[in-house]
Amino acid sequence: MNNKRPNAIFGKIGRVASEEVILRLTKTKCLPVLLYALEVCPVKVSDTKSLDFVINRLFMKLFNTNVMDTVRFCQDLFGFEFPSVLVVKRKAKFVDKFEQFTRNCFAVD
Fold this sequence. Notes:
The chain is mostly helical. The chain has one domain (5-105). The chain is 71% helix and 0% strand. The protein has helices at residues 5-13, 19-35, 45-62, 68-77, 83-105. Helix 1 (5-13) packs antiparallel against helix 2.
């Protein structure tokens, strides 16, 4: 897994953009790449923890803190969900759509 994506944003725009812009770019550009197709793959807890770590480090770097309470507060304030939570949501949505598809395909008239 490529955990350098959020750092690529810092490399391109540095500290020129606001925290809101950096987080919006991360949410719309980086997270989809990090989470691509994980809803159909078996994912270990260590893998999702790894993705969560990337987000925690992003917030630590962005808000210049190592205090996890501050990091969590900022994540809540900006409505930033952990990748581990997003993977579970995406997997549930995929399973629902797949079950609906199979019911429709194999429905007996």
